[in-house]
């Protein structure tokens, strides 16, 4: 099923993300987590793509497994930053062969000290979107950044670039994580003003480890509201308490999004079925998946 059709639903829906193993040795544990998360009946599941391109086979295989064996719609991520155009096109062909209808088209983070872009690489995700669009009847998603992308100094330029990307053939957007919902509401208002009309799925990351937070923030440039800093200060060193508090915080954000008219939230569940299960439990009378 195409995600753009799922996003037409007018009742609260939840989807989850998993990431592929870095080596074949980790495959079994990722499959087990994927199966447990799929059993929660999410409206779809996304599978990330290693920026280096080395795990592309695993992304395609897990996306097929989710769709064919677990009966859940899958969304395969695809990045182009560390691959040639030929490699990216081979992956698109493979996705098509496997009957995967949904692709999240991304550039990926530019590796330090690289000569990106080489002549045979896509420079921006917008170029990848156009390529996928020309290759078949895919439903195409792309990333957006309520707090602005770190590479672009001015938020207005980022929104202008986002409009260009959407106009290349994007069907829906998924946001970078955020911890303060008004930042998302404000972003939504600004992109609608800029003429971006496709559905936007907010991405929520339950922070369940104090150490995880520091790394996450460094990578994304995401602002932490004082309310969440207080949670981290109080519970960050107590793993069980932090997990409970992180799940409660994410649940609270999701309920606020639904209460404000959003119908679909994507949860960065980080291959953790316990976290995904707890969130679904907290929302058991609210979410209407299926
Ligand atoms: P782009 O849309 O190309 O934007 C990158 C930067 O270039 C932005 O600052 C933009 O404003 C600027 N830009 C775009 N077009 C132009 C232009 N024409 N002229 C000038 N500037 C321009 N990474 C992974 O490695 N694997 C994943 O699976 C993955 N999944 C993700 C899922 C989501 C929902 C999100 C939000 C991010 C994900 N990422 C993933 C991270 C992402 O790859 C990085 O944030 C990357 O730095 C940007 O990718 P993009 O597709 O947003 O790039």
Could you give the topology of this structure?
Layout: H1 3-6, E1 13-18, H2 27-38, E2 45-47, H3 56-68, E3 74-79, H4 85-97, E4 102-106, H5 125-135, E5 139-144, H6 155-167, E6 172-175, H7 181-193, E7 200-201, E8 203-204, H8 210-220, H9 226-235, H10 239-259, E9 264-267, H11 273-282
Parallel strand pairs: 1-2, 1-9, 2-3, 3-4, 4-5, 5-6, 6-7, 8-9
Helix pairs in contact: 5-6, 9-10, 10-11
Flavin-adenine dinucleotide binds at residues 48-49, 51, 77, 79, 104, 106-109, 124-126, 143, 149, 151-152, 158, 161, 164-165, 174, 176, 203.
Quick recap of the structure?
This protein is of the alpha/beta class and 290 residues long. It is 45% helix and 13% strand. It has 11 helices and 9 strands.
What labels would you give this structure?
290 residues; alpha/beta; 9-stranded parallel β-sheet; 11 helices; 9 strands; globular; binds flavin-adenine dinucleotide
Account of the 3D structure:
This protein is an alpha/beta fold. 45% of the residues lie in helices and 13% in strands. The chain contains eleven helices and nine strands. The protein has helices at 3-6, 27-38, 56-68, 85-97, 125-135, 155-167, 181-193, 210-220, 226-235, 239-259, 273-282, and strands at 13-18, 45-47, 74-79, 102-106, 139-144, 172-175, 200-201, 203-204, 264-267. A nine-stranded parallel β-sheet has the order 7-6-5-4-3-2-1-9-8. Helix 10 (239-259) packs across helix 11 (273-282). It starts with a helix and ends in an 8-residue tail after the last helix. Flavin-adenine dinucleotide is lined by residues 48-49, 51, 77, 79, 104, 106-109, 124-126, 143, 149, 151-152, 158, 161, 164-165, 174, 176, 203. Flavin-adenine dinucleotide (FAD) binds at residues 48-49, 51, 77, 79, 104, 106-109, 124-126, 143, 149, 151-152, 158, 161, 164-165, 174, 176, 203.
């Amino acid at each position: 099923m195409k995600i753009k059709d799922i996003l037409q639903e007018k009742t609260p829906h939840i989807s989850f993300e998993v990431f592929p193993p870095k080596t074949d040795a980790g495959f079994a544990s990722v499959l087990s987590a994927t199966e447990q998360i799929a059993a929660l009946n999410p409206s779809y599941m996304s599978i990330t793509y290693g920026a280096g391109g080395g795990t592309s086979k695993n992304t395609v295989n897990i996306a097929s497994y989710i769709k064919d064996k677990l009966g859940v719609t899958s969304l395969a991520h695809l990045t182009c930053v560390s691959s040639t155009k030929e490699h990216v096109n081979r992956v698109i062909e493979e996705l098509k062969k496997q009957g995967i209808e949904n692709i999240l088209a991304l550039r990926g983070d530019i590796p330090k000290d690289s000569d990106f872009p080489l002549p045979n690489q896509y420079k921006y995700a917008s170029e990848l979107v156009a390529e996928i669009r020309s290759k078949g009847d895919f439903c195409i998603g792309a990333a957006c950044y309520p707090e602005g992308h770190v590479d672009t100094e001015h938020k207005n330029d980022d929104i202008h670039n986002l409009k260009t990307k959407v106009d290349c053939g994007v069907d829906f957007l998924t946001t970078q994580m955020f911890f303060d919902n008004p930042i998302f509401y404000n972003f939504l208002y600004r992109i609608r003003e800029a003429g971006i009309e496709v559905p936007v799925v907010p991405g929520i990351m339950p922070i369940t480890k104090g150490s995880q937070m520091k790394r996450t923030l460094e990578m994304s440039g995401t602002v932490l509201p004082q309310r969440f800093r207080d949670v981290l200060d109080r519970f960050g060193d107590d793993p069980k308490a932090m997990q409970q508090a992180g799940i409660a915080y994410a649940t609270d954000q999701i309920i606020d999004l639904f209460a404000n008219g959003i119908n679909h939230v994507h949860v960065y569940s980080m291959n953790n079925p316990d976290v995904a299960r707890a969130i679904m439990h907290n929302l058991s009378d609210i979410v209407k998946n299926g």
